[in-house]
Design goal:
This protein is mainly alpha-helical and about 450 residues long. Helix 9 runs antiparallel to helix 10, helix 16 crosses helix 17 and helix 18 runs antiparallel to helix 19. The chain contains 23 helices and 2 strands. Strand 1 and strand 2 form a beta hairpin.
Length: about 450
C-alpha cells in the first residue's frame, strides 16, 4: 500500500512519492491562479508516480473543464485509470473519481452533490470548492456559488493556501447575486493577498461593469496587465471586459484594437486566430454582435469564428457557447451549416443529462432566434426568445455575458413592434443595473418604447 503524503491543506494523498505530492500541490495552485503551466505540473506529478489516482482524476477534471467533446476521451481514460487505482485511495480521493465519472456521464447534479459531500467532510478541499464554483457558474446557479463561498469562509483560516481564491469566488458570487456593496471588499482583499489573482481582478471588473464604472474598470485592468505573462485564456476574457468598458464609452476603435490583439494571446498579431475555447468564442462573437448593432463595420472578422463553428457542429457540452457559434454562422450566411448545427442541438437535447436539458430548453431556441434575427424574421426571433427566457439563466454565463441575448431580444422586439416584449427585454436588462436606456445597445429601444 502506498505511503500517505499530505497536500498543502493537510489532506491525505495516496502516493509514496514526495515529488508527486509536491507537483500535485503546484498543479492545484497553478489551476487556481489560471496559469498556462498547470498541465506541466500535473505531468510532473504523474511522471513521479504513475499510480497516483487523484492526479489521474485531476487530469480528467481539466479535460472536462474545456467543454469540448474531443477532449471527452481524455477524461474517460483518466477516469478509467483513476478508478482502477482507487482501491487503495482515501475515501475523499475515491469520491473525486466518482464526481468525475458522473460529470463524464452528463449527470452534473450528481457531480455537484459529490463535491458538496466532500466539502462537508473536508471543508478545506479547495479543488472540490473551485470546481463546484466553476460548474455552478456555467449552470446559472449563483446562489449556490455564494452559499458555498460564504460557508467555507467561516471555516477557513486566512493562512490557508488558496484563501485569496476563496475571496475572489466570494466576490464574484456576491456580484452575480446583485450584492455589489458586499462583493467589492472581498475582491480587493483577494488582490491584497495576491495582486496577480486573475479571478479576483475578473470579479472586480464585473462589479464595476454592473455599476457603470467604466473608468474604474479600465484603470483596474490596465494596472493588472503587468501580471498577465504566464496566464491562460482568462486573460482574453479580461481583455473582453476592458473592451466592454470602452464599448460603453463608444470608443469603438479601441474595442476593435483590443479584439484584434488582446482577444488572442497577449500582443499577438492579427494573423493569429481567436482560440476555439468556449470563453474565447463567447468573447469574440458577443463583441462583434454588439459592434454591428452600433453600425460598426467589423470587416471579415466573423469568418474565422464561422470556420471554427463548422468544426464544432454537434459539440454541445457548452450550452451557452452554442448561440455564439450560431452568431458566426448566421453573420456569414452559412445557412446549411447553421441548419446542421441546429440539428446537432436537437439530437443532443433529445438525450439525457443536465446539459441536454439546458440545450433543449434554452440553447436551441436562443440559437434559432439568433438565426431568425440575422435573416430579418424578427417576429419569429421574438417568439423563440420568449421560449428561451424560461430557462435562459441555466445557460450559465454572467449577467454581463447574457446581456447580448437580451440585446438581440430587444432589437427583434423593437423591429417587429412587439412592445410588450421590448418592455420585458429592457426590464430584464436593467435588473440590478443602471437603467437599460442609458447603456449602449438599449438606448434606441428605450426611446422607441417611450414613444
Amino acid at each position: 500500500m502506498d505511503v500517505m503524503r499530505f497536500d498543502l491543506h493537510g489532506l491525505a494523498l495516496t502516493t509514496g512519492s514526495d515529488e508527486a505530492a509536491a507537483a500535485f500541490d503546484r498543479t492545484i495552485m497553478a489551476y487556481l491562479k489560471y496559469r498556462t503551466d498547470t498541465p506541466v505540473h500535473l505531468a510532473g506529478a504523474l511522471a513521479a508516480d504513475p499510480d497516483f489516482a487523484l492526479a489521474h482524476c485531476l487530469q480528467g477534471y481539466l479535460a472536462m473543464t474545456s467543454f469540448k467533446q474531443a477532449n471527452a476521451c481524455v477524461a474517460e481514460e483518466a477516469a478509467r485509470k483513476a478508478r482502477a487505482l482507487s482501491a487503495s485511495a482515501t475515501a475523499r480521493e475515491s469520491a473525486h473519481v466518482e464526481a468525475l465519472e458522473a460529470w463524464i456521464a452528463g449527470d452534473l447534479d450528481r457531480t455537484l452533490g459529490v463535491w458538496e459531500q466532500v466539502l462537508t467532510e473536508y471543508p478545506v478541499d479547495v479543488l472540490a470548492f473551485r470546481l463546484a464554483h466553476f460548474l455552478n457558474f456555467w449552470l446559472g446557479r449563483p446562489r449556490a456559488m455564494r452559499a458555498s463561498a460564504e460557508q467555507l469562509r467561516s471555516l477557513w483560516g486566512s493562512e490557508l493556501p488558496g484563501y485569496g481564491t476563496l475571496l475572489s469566488c466570494l466576490c464574484f458570487a456576491r456580484e452575480e447575486c446583485g450584492d455589489y456593496g458586499a462583493a467589492e471588499p472581498a475582491g480587493w482583499q483577494a488582490l491584497d493577498i495576491d495582486c496577480a489573482d486573475f479571478w479576483g481582478t475578473h470579479a472586480l471588473a464585473h462589479v464595476m461593469e454592473m455599476m457603470g464604472r467604466q473608468s474604474d474598470g479600465i484603470a483596474l485592468l490596465e494596472s493588472s496587465e503587468r501580471h498577465w505573462p504566464g496566464g491562460n485564456n482568462l486573460l482574453h476574457h479580461l481583455a473582453w471586459h476592458r473592451a466592454l468598458f470602452h464599448y460603453e464609452r463608444r470608443e469603438f476603435d479601441v474595442v476593435l484594437d483590443l479584439y484584434d490583439n488582446r482577444f488572442r494571446d497577449l500582443g499577438s498579431p492579427l494573423t493569429s486566430a481567436v482560440p476555439d475555447l468556449y470563453i474565447d468564442v463567447q468573447n469574440a462573437a458577443s463583441m462583434l454582435f454588439r459592434l454591428e448593432r452600433q453600425g460598426v463595420d467589423v470587416g471579415d472578422r466573423w469568418g474565422e469564428l464561422a470556420d471554427k463553428a463548422e468544426q464544432r457542429i454537434g459539440d454541445c457540452l457548452s450550452a451557452f457557447t452554442l448561440p455564439h457559434w450560431m452568431m458566426a454562422l448566421a453573420a456569414t450566411g452559412r445557412t446549411a451549416a447553421a441548419d446542421r448545427m441546429l440539428a446537432g442541438m436537437r439530437a443532443f437535447g433529445a438525450g439525457s443529462g443536465t446539459v441536454a436539458e439546458v440545450v433543449r430548453e434554452a440553447a436551441l431556441p436562443a440559437s434559432e432566434a439568433v438565426l431568425a434575427h440575422r435573416q430579418g424574421d424578427h417576429g419569429r426571433a421574438v417568439a423563440l426568445m420568449r421560449t428561451a427566457l424560461r430557462r435562459m439563466h441555466a445557460l450559465g454565463g454572467s449577467h454581463a455575458q447574457q446581456d447580448v441575448l437580451l440585446q438581440l431580444y430587444a432589437d427583434a422586439a423593437a423591429k417587429s413592434s412587439h412592445h410588450d416584449d421590448l418592455e420585458t427585454a429592457l426590464a430584464l436588462a436593467a435588473s440590478g443595473r443602471r437603467p437599460a436606456g442609458e447603456r449602449v445597445g438599449y438606448a434606441e429601444a428605450a426611446l422607441l418604447l417611450a414613444r
